[in-house]
Batch of 2 targets.
Target 1
Amino acid sequence: MSRSLALQQMSSGRHRQTNVVPLRPETDVVIRCEDNIEFMRSLDPESMKLIVTSPPYNMGKAYERRSSLESYIAEQAATISEAVRLLHPKGSICWQVGNYVEDGEVFPLDIILYQLFKNHELKLRNRIVWTFGHGLHCQRRFSGRHETILWFTKSDNYTFNLDPVRVPSKYPYKKHFKGPNKGQISSNPLGKNPSDVWEIPNVKANHVEKTDHPCQFPVELVERLVLALTNKGDCVLDPYLGVGSSSIAALLHRRKAYGCDISQNYTNTALSRIDMLQTGQLKTRPMNKPIYQPPVWDE
Ligand SMILES: C[S@@+](CC[C@H](N)C(=O)[O-])C[C@H]1O[C@@H](n2cnc3c(N)ncnc32)[C@H](O)[C@@H]1O
């Protein structure tokens, strides 16, 4: 199927995700129930093309122990330092975070953590805004409906594949109105750059990917990063793996998946999701599926 046909199908809603992924478990997947510093120390330097993760936000969720902001930052610094050691020279780190909130005051974690990456001379390529429709309804500030992904590279010579992540153009039949190409279609037939603002539903109760983890990644969010920032056969690591959403995104696109989580419960769920992926039983929300718009009722 040509890519333009695939894009047309995506936009018309006929695109389907089959999710039957033949795996060689002994070489394609390494998942451990372990503290991430221990796990990362066991891996080879410069072996990971993409390190993508969502760390705890120090908000006292079921999976975290709330500590002072200073000790939280020190823990993050240690994990980031080990991640940089593992990062391939052409590789990327994507750190997805929201806010830490104390006594009603909001501390944006991307601003706080940015310097930890700069201490290793990484270069920021995008600060991606991930926006979604559902969350807490705040009473004394505007309800938060976005988080961010800091995308850093180790060098200026980094992998970036735009074509696999293009999205349908708004005006695909727009033409050049002057110059030597006058009358010819001006937009790229493969679609447009998805920009640095991504509207992707977060995983709440009705989401097809929902497990018992309170804060899982939507797989499609990580798929876009995997496709753009790695090639087939590359290694993708998530040091705060949760229920394995980033591993699923990697395996769906024939990359190798590495990850760890301190919770046995979550790593068990991650492994059983990967088993389901092999047999075609795992449902994921397809990339670029249009956001559901409720019907408009007349009064
Ligand atoms: C925000 S969640 C990540 C969820 C994940 N993105 C997913 O899609 O399931 C953070 C995870 O980090 C894990 N965690 C916290 N401290 C850890 C540590 N020191 N080493 C490994 N995992 C840790 C928690 O158990 C939790 O599952």
Target 2
Amino acid sequence: MVLLKWTFAFLVYFKKDAGKGILGYRVGMSFLTDLIRPSIKTTKKREVAADVWEKCPGCGQLIYDAELPQHLYCCTHCGHHLRWNVDERLAYLLDQGEEQGSQEPGTKVGPAPVAIEVRVPADDPLQFKDRKAYKARLKEARAVSGHNDAFRALHGHIEGQPVAVCALDFDFMAGSMSRGVGEALVAVAQYALEHRLPMLAITASGGARMQESTLSLMQMARSTAAISMLKEAGLPYIVLLTDPTTGGVTASFAMTGDVHMAEPGALIGFAGARVIEQTIRQTLPEGFQRAEYLLEHGMVDMVTPRAEQKAVLARLLGMMTSGVRAG
Ligand SMILES: [Zn+2]
């Protein structure tokens, strides 16, 4: 009986500490290593600074951070378009005047962009608080971005073609549409009307800003109305859809363009895929809500890689405004 007890205790010990040993035998590794010290010591994992390498969400390979700007934040292995900071995007897309560096011979260069004035409404009209007060979230986002809200409003040029630009900043509260963002769209549209300029919206947004509730949803109607004024005046309106463009932004000014250009692989949709699947109880097709899928189904006009966007936009602006400025 005593022998049986000991055998049982021994087996329990082995089971608890079982590891895969030499030749695949299951042995109690800690039991053995307690007796025989390993001759080869495990090498320490080399620490890699997180901000030096980035893992590509497309192919999973490591991309060297320092190489990203020269490749316009596209993966050097598979070309996957990573999310790109709005200020860096605008600095690339818009002409920077005489100081601009090397340029293809014969390409026009317009003056550096100037800000379009936007009167941002007073903060936090609903005194909203979730886990954190909305005022505190705004303060934090402003400190990080150095901007007042999730937009940039600029009068710039793309290869010499003038354009009024409203770009959303995904790094500022996920580019959500606040009253400030709505105001920016209206201001840029009015500026375009006044100066008879085409308008370009660059979208990257999680949708409406929940902290502003219905007031945020109202911006869908306001921005759509502002774009309609452009259309009535015969001024072109182009949308560059970047990853991700979702919710109330997709359901308003992002989808009312004369031309919709999307970035490769960008997520563009209204409701999230999981919500749709749960609602319709069907599995969604491969690539659903991605730029290429939307191109196939006629929701966007072109899927244009970053490196080509500038030239294509300049060509579009040139063609679409040839009769505008005279009128
Ligand atoms: Zn990749």
